[in-house]
Amino acid sequence: MRKAVVLVAGLLCLGVGSVARSSSEEGDDNLLKFETMFGVSGPFLGPTNAIRGVPGAGAAWRLSRGEGELGAGGKLEIEVRGLVLVSTGANPVANFRGLVSCQSIDGTGAPNTVNVSTGDFPASPAGDAEIEADVELPTPCIAPIIFVTNSAGRWFAVTGR
């Protein structure tokens, strides 16, 4: 009985090691995967209650769906559907950007916030967009938050719900 337990434990260890190795080899080292986003509204409108220094848009926004991932190497992918103004049900801006906010440590050892943005990506009047870009993440990038913003850096949607 003892030999069987040792054999099973050994096989489990080998299996776990090969799974971890193949996952790393395939580049699945994501810092963050998300399937929900929250549209800016209420107290987050405007600059008064900015999140990590990122001010909210001046009007309320909603979205049907927001998902994506951030790779450890800085590959950012965001897909939004139906990101529109609450008041009109339409998206009045031509482009969205992705923004990654990380808590990090500066050269003196003090904590700091580092925000990095993509360039513009086309957004439809229905509020649909796909953002794919490589961003330069700080080291370390702790507790990343993903935003969808306009070109001026005001957020329309953020990870969460």
Share of residues in strands:
35-45%
Helix/strand-derived category reads: mainly beta
For the largest beta-sheet, the strand count, sense and barrel status come to: 6 strands, antiparallel
Uncertain segments = 1-26
Mean pLDDT: 88
Shape: globular
Distance between the termini: 50 Å
Q: Supply the number of helical segments.
A: 1
Order of SSEs, N→C? HEEEEEEEEEEEE
Helix content: 10-25%
Rg result: 20 Å
> How many strand segments?
12
Map the helices and strands.
Blueprint: H1 2-25, E1 30-34, E2 37-39, E3 61-62, E4 65-71, E5 75-81, E6 84-85, E7 95-105, E8 111-117, E9 121-122, E10 129-134, E11 142-149, E12 155-159
Antiparallel strand pairs: 1-4, 2-12, 3-6, 4-5, 5-10, 7-8, 7-9, 7-11, 11-12
Structural commentary:
The protein is built from one helix and twelve strands. With 161 residues, the protein is mostly beta strands. Helices cover 15% and strands 40% of the residues. The protein has one domain (29-159). Strands 2, 7, 8, 9, 11 and 12 form a six-stranded antiparallel sheet that branches. The chain has a four-stranded antiparallel sheet with strand order 1-4-5-10, with no helix packed on it. A two-stranded antiparallel ribbon has the order 3-6.
